[in-house]
Amino acid sequence: MSTELILASVIFVSIAFILVAVFMLSRFVGPKNKNSKIKNSVYESGVTNPVGNTNIRFSVKFYLVAISFLLFDVEIIFMFPWAVNVAELGYYGLIKMFIFMGLLFAGLIYIYKKKALLWD
């Protein structure tokens, strides 16, 4: 058996032991709350007695806006490193960023034409 394998095994077993010990310690040391009527009651946004049916369907536009936000938010992850290295990339990097921004702009136009941003 190699020393790397023995070291990896010892580290794995040590981490597993530490995790089990932490969970057991938190179970014994942590606060113990008995089930009570107040603890098990419904509480939503400051309202203790909800009114109406909770099985209502949401509009798909909520999800479209959320996905659109994520799409355009993730673009910043790609733009920041480009902005830091723009001098090193030169015109080639500038052209690639214009293509990237053009594709994102085309996506924004598509979302606008599908009227996903309108709240009727």
TrEMBL record:
<comment type="similarity">
    <text>Belongs to the complex I subunit 3 family.</text>
</comment>
<dbReference type="InterPro" id="IPR000440">
    <property type="entry name" value="NADH_UbQ/plastoQ_OxRdtase_su3"/>
</dbReference>
<feature type="transmembrane region" description="Helical">
    <location>
        <begin position="89"/>
        <end position="112"/>
    </location>
</feature>
<dbReference type="GO" id="GO:0048038">
    <property type="term" value="F:quinone binding"/>
</dbReference>
<keyword id="KW-0830">Ubiquinone</keyword>
<dbReference type="Pfam" id="PF00507">
    <property type="entry name" value="Oxidored_q4"/>
</dbReference>
<dbReference type="InterPro" id="IPR023043">
    <property type="entry name" value="NAD(P)H_OxRDtase_bac/plastid"/>
</dbReference>
<keyword id="KW-0472">Membrane</keyword>
<dbReference type="GO" id="GO:0008137">
    <property type="term" value="F:NADH dehydrogenase (ubiquinone) activity"/>
</dbReference>
<keyword id="KW-0813">Transport</keyword>
<dbReference type="InterPro" id="IPR038430">
    <property type="entry name" value="NDAH_ubi_oxred_su3_sf"/>
</dbReference>
<keyword id="KW-1133">Transmembrane helix</keyword>
<comment type="subunit">
    <text>NDH-1 is composed of 14 different subunits. Subunits NuoA, H, J, K, L, M, N constitute the membrane sector of the complex.</text>
</comment>
<keyword id="KW-1003">Cell membrane</keyword>
<protein>
    <recommendedName>
        <fullName>NADH-quinone oxidoreductase subunit A</fullName>
        <ecNumber>7.1.1.-</ecNumber>
    </recommendedName>
</protein>
<comment type="function">
    <text>NDH-1 shuttles electrons from NADH, via FMN and iron-sulfur (Fe-S) centers, to quinones in the respiratory chain. The immediate electron acceptor for the enzyme in this species is believed to be ubiquinone. Couples the redox reaction to proton translocation (for every two electrons transferred, four hydrogen ions are translocated across the cytoplasmic membrane), and thus conserves the redox energy in a proton gradient.</text>
</comment>
<dbReference type="GO" id="GO:0030964">
    <property type="term" value="C:NADH dehydrogenase complex"/>
</dbReference>
<dbReference type="GO" id="GO:0005886">
    <property type="term" value="C:plasma membrane"/>
</dbReference>
<feature type="transmembrane region" description="Helical">
    <location>
        <begin position="6"/>
        <end position="29"/>
    </location>
</feature>
<keyword id="KW-1278">Translocase</keyword>
<keyword id="KW-0520">NAD</keyword>
<keyword id="KW-0874">Quinone</keyword>
<dbReference type="GO" id="GO:0050136">
    <property type="term" value="F:NADH dehydrogenase (quinone) (non-electrogenic) activity"/>
</dbReference>
<feature type="transmembrane region" description="Helical">
    <location>
        <begin position="62"/>
        <end position="83"/>
    </location>
</feature>
<keyword id="KW-0812">Transmembrane</keyword>
